[in-house]
Amino acid sequence: MAEATVLAVSGMTFESRIAAGPGVATLHGFRDRALETTLAEVLGRERVWDGVISIGVAGGLAPQLAPGTVIVAAGVQDGDVLLPCDTRWQDALRGALPHAMSGLIAGVDAAVTTVADKATLHGLRGALAVDMESHIAARAAIDHGLPFAALRVVVDPAERPVPPLAVAGMAADGSTDIRAILLGLLKAPWELGGLIRLGRDAAAAKTALTRARQLAGLALLAPLSLRESGRG
Questions:
Q1: Which of 73, 55, 162, 165 is nearest to 117 (CA)?
Q2: CA dist., res. 60 & res. 70, Å (int)
Q3: Which of 103, 124, 133, 142 is deepest in the core (most CB within 10 A)?
Q4: Which residues does the UniProt record annotate as the domain Nucleoside phosphorylase (predicted)?
Q5: Rg, the chain, Cα only
Q6: In DSSP terms, which residues pair with 180 in a beta bridge?
């Protein structure tokens, strides 16, 4: 299958590389309004899109979710609005990933870094994890009448804060700004321990995401299969 039919939306470059494959186009390196605008442009082009999936890592909100926990979202909580995921796509992903958890993912416009803020967000609607792309991708899919799904893997567990330098090191284009991190460490060397711990968590999450993408296989293209079966 040469032509992409599903658009995979991620925040970071490594997430996009993992998501890519036959039939899957990727979009990463945009946030907030820029992501919203870019998605509208991409999905509005004259081509057949079968669905939009948010795929990548996420911050843990529910207690005791270890780094590397895979989540197939049932919906995305966008403030007070619940954006549902396509049930048939969910079923396909959960069939391919029987070890994955199912539940809500919260979408936010700014990083959630403190243990207290994670607990508050979890307490509002019971979301398992949080990221900064799923709510925007879900809204775009709904606006264009497309199925939406989300596949996310926990990086930082709810019980641990995210070091401020980790957020500062996220470049706007989805890469890691090593220079910003090194300069930050010169001013705040006490953050080194937290960064090392987060690095270990990130390695576990990356391994789990890679494995989940491999196992998901054709389940990522479930909307295409459903469209083609409808033709028959």
A1: 162
A2: 11
A3: 133
A4: 50-186
A5: 17
A6: none
Contact criterion met (CB below 8 Å) for 52 and 221: no
pLDDT for 111-162, tens place per residue? Answer: 898 999 999 999 999 999 999 999 999 999 999 999 999 999 999 999 998 8
Say if CB 73 and CB 104 are below 8 A apart: yes
**Exposure letters 152-167 (e unless 16+ CB within 10 A, then b):** bbbbbbbebbbbebbe
Q: How many CA atoms lie within 13 A of 66 on its CB side?
A: 6
Distances (CA, A) of 52 to 42, 213, 219: 11, 15, 13
Q: Is the pTM of this model over 0.90?
A: no
**Structure token digits, residue 69:** 């926990």
C-alpha torsion angle, residues 174, 151, 9, 51 (rounded to 10): 170
Instruction: Tell the residue number behind the tokens 């990083």, with chain if given.
Output: 111
